Known about the structure:
The structure is a homodimer of 495-residue chains. Chain A is mainly alpha-helical and 495 residues long. Helix content of chain A is 64%, strand content 3%. Chain A contains 20 helices and 3 strands. In chain A, helix 1 packs antiparallel against helix 2 (36-54). Chains A, B: It catalyses: Release of a C-terminal amino acid with broad specificity, except for -Pro. Chains A, B: Keywords: Carboxypeptidase, Hydrolase, Metal-binding, Metalloprotease, Protease, Zinc.
Amino acid sequence: xxxxxxxxxxxxxxxxxxxxxxxxxxxxxxxxxxxxxxxxxxxxxxxxxxxxxxxxxxxxxxxxxxxxxxxxxxxxxxxxxxxxxxxxxxxxxxxxxxxxxxxxxxxxxxxxxxxxxxxxxxxxxxxxxxxxxxxxxxxxxxxxxxxxxxxxxxxxxxxxxxxxxxxxxxxxxxxxxxxxxxxxxxxxxxxxxxxxxxxxxxxxxxxxxxxxxxxxxxxxxxxxxxxxxxxxxxxxxxxxxxxxxxxxxxxxxxxxxxxxxxxxxxxxxxxxxxxxxxxxxxxxxxxxxxxxxxxxxxxxxxxxxxxxxxxxxxxxxxxxxxxxxxxxxxxxxxxxxxxxxxxxxxxxxxxxxxxxxxxxxxxxxxxxxxxxxxxxxxxxxxxxxxxxxxxxxxxxxxxxxxxxxxxxxxxxxxxxxxxxxxxxxxxxxxxxxxxxxxxxxxxxxxxxxxxxxxxxxxxxxxxxxxxxxxxxxxxxxxxxxxxxxxxxxxxxxxx
Amino acid sequence: xxxxxxxxxxxxxxxxxxxxxxxxxxxxxxxxxxxxxxxxxxxxxxxxxxxxxxxxxxxxxxxxxxxxxxxxxxxxxxxxxxxxxxxxxxxxxxxxxxxxxxxxxxxxxxxxxxxxxxxxxxxxxxxxxxxxxxxxxxxxxxxxxxxxxxxxxxxxxxxxxxxxxxxxxxxxxxxxxxxxxxxxxxxxxxxxxxxxxxxxxxxxxxxxxxxxxxxxxxxxxxxxxxxxxxxxxxxxxxxxxxxxxxxxxxxxxxxxxxxxxxxxxxxxxxxxxxxxxxxxxxxxxxxxxxxxxxxxxxxxxxxxxxxxxxxxxxxxxxxxxxxxxxxxxxxxxxxxxxxxxxxxxxxxxxxxxxxxxxxxxxxxxxxxxxxxxxxxxxxxxxxxxxxxxxxxxxxxxxxxxxxxxxxxxxxxxxxxxxxxxxxxxxxxxxxxxxxxxxxxxxxxxxxxxxxxxxxxxxxxxxxxxxxxxxxxxxxxxxxxxxxxxxxxxxxxxxx
Lengths: 495, 495
């Protein structure tokens, strides 16, 4: 049976990717410097093998034959996801993949120093090459899928999402967000916030992070918490590895970072066990993934109820401070301040950072602008959305992110889609569980986890994203819940 | 050119084995319990691939063709080692490899509990199956190589070593070792040793271990120190991962354990960089490997000179104690006490543990005895060599080691061969560097490292073992240096 052969091939790929994933995690967390070349070569070798065995001609024969076979509903969903992955895998000639990987590595490597040096001219030269290759990639993918060029790239991260839809929700956002930011700032001016006094030892911060992970249901028998310079959630569903970084002056970032990654981790830890190894058992999309991390970080952890539960533990670990008063913590964790850096942005200004990148990268891939136009567009949009001036400050402007350096165009929308989905899930849960705030305040996340498990985690990729959203929440993606959430929390001082 | 194709295939295998090695290290040091099944499956998948691509028919065609090609001296040595590995790889049908892996896993798994329960009858049942399959393996390998059955297994760990040679050196050992043990015990009776007073925190023990590693030249940019329940030296030559375990009642075991593994690690870290990935760049044999760990542990670290250098650092880390007097430390670290357990044995009684295992496993593989004869033979030999009674105590007798549970017959001699080589190296160095004890006492291991690097590490597998020993020391393996070392240290109170 061809379906069987296909699914065995994907099981094999799953085993190889397990090793790649652990090797990648180790590279970021454990590996000493001199191990890097050998590691990179080993990873490249096995990645190459994975590409070869997933694009081998027999695989397409099996796929064609499997489409004629009688399959269960679940097998059909798996076949749909297999087909999607194979279509993406075969779209590009190996020469382009290699050229991209080389240009991306070169651009990213140089960027690390160029960013420090604010060297836009040097960076632009490499970026042009990356953009050129990404445009080729986009054209090939567009040809194969019938999508627009940008949509063909975005489809890698957000299957089924189109820029028409993104434009719709971002268009809405663009209407009210700049005003909201202004109003919140005016309102928060009168707040007097007490800053926690450090130092906060790494050991204590780790203890607090692990306490939060435990509270949020992370399974420590199936995962770990470690340190890396760029926090991420990696590993494999059976063994999820999340990382954070510590700054002894402040524990706020590591705490919220750990909680954010715990959201990703719980999704991975609760994908359907019986299907692991098959494409249908993978997380639905980057936006849905981000909806889990942001659900945990924004919907739960920055709420008044959760912080009131956490406050005593913070005092227990670091010793009592006036700053650990629950209401003070809440004001700290919901402070809105327009800034230049996306990864430091608060919940309210974050979407502005995403919108401006989306507009630029879309125009860039569609060929409407060139690399040299980026700084002016960046400056104009930062002014428009956040009232900030970045003229000449490239390193805190268009050179701040890693995404474009290696050609990951089409990814940025996932962040804000995730924030919107998260608000929609929480709205839904509030309707179904009127006691939810009380439960959070008591540190009882059982029913919330149950809801997420049933509606998101166990669904994996059995449904398409629109189907998933419809089944979980009874309607399509509706950005009004996100607006309502921000207004409730930041204007009306609720939640 | 066929040689080129062969060497590319081995380069590819090297990359895959890098990932297997890191995944194995992670499994022992980092992996949470629930990750084990997925990890085992992933490792099995890639191991299977490695076996397939190293026994594919084209490989043997390349090998035959390469033997007709004009090669450099070094390429010829590499081809010799390639041939050796391929010969070993193709000796066994896949069905036998699978049956062995299954029987070994079953026997080892059950042994963990059976050992605790002292359940010889239960263990013997599984062991019979393992022995049966190892005999089949030995017959096939013997047929292919023309060696005796036991020699064909030992050749996997000690290329070129034969039981005739082992019998020669062990025969010598058997003459004088039991007497020496008695004499040393009599002499040491009058010693009054002050025991260090714990607890010794893990953090402090780690600090001491890292200090010793640094002193012994371990490159921390190309390796790490971690914790595992069974200490080992793993990873890859570019990134050597060694492990230890800590007991807060005593730091002696972790310190000497770390130094032992550092010997393995320096060998790996200093294999010839330009040849990494090729069989000729691998360590020469398990015995030569053990000669490095035992050189560092026995020849250097348990010497009076080294301990006098280390004593101030021990006091600095743990605080001053009378027990940290250099002469007291020396007496502690050179105490001889016959015991039941091999891994706890001192330098003098250790070879007795090895000899008795060698005699039993050789007879077992050659079919001269059966599994049910093991306990009586064990009891007889323990009585003969160490004057100890193990009757009925299987768990501290013939059930104590992991080696036989998974069919690793032929490995034990490497331990004592290593101890003998180590003594031979040190003798040689003493001849060439009369100031060596002074250098050790000053913590200056530069010239010692240089000698090892030139004569052992950089030689990798370019020479056969007898050639290596001859070139390094000017003569063949000569067990009299080991005897001389033990008598000097333990009878004459030197070194």
